[in-house]
Design brief:
The chain has helices at about 20-25, 30, 40-60, 95-110, 125-135, and strands at about 5, 10, 60-65, 70-80, 80-85, 115-120, 140-150, 150-160. It is an alpha+beta fold. The strands form two sheets. It has a five-stranded antiparallel sheet, with helices on both faces. A three-stranded antiparallel sheet has the order 6-8-7, with helices on one face.
Length: about 160
Amino acid sequence: MMLRTDRLILRAPLPRDLDAMFSVYSDPRAMRYWSTAPHDSPSITRELLDWRIAHWAVAPINFQITLNDRYIGNAGNFKDDEIGFMLHPDHWRQGILTEAMGAIIPYLWEATDHTQLTADADPNNAASCGLLRSLGFQETHRAENTFCINGVWSDSVYFALPRP
């Protein structure tokens, strides 16, 4: 399974993605609002990549975002009905996640039986909250102290997009 947009190829995770993934997941800017600390070793990223490869074989619904045949992020459905996305900071504010999710969401409606798609974000992450709203997601509720990374607590805002 592969999806194409004007600029992107959204594809399966591959072992050759490791170095590019580590450059994203070790970057404190990219990980500022993530649910784990930045990866301090490629072995941590390797575990994530291995999990994605194994999960893809069962459910091809969480895509590697590639630009010019190079991994720059990922987006899709990664657990239950929850979607998520990650993008290398060098590619922020270029409409890449809007473009990727514009292809992924219709695919998820075809490939899954989810009655809705959900997402959560740190309420301080204006870019992610704005992207979700632009995709039609509506805020459902908020919760305090949902993630503790390196002793710092973060809150969450939750979103849902009902099946059309």
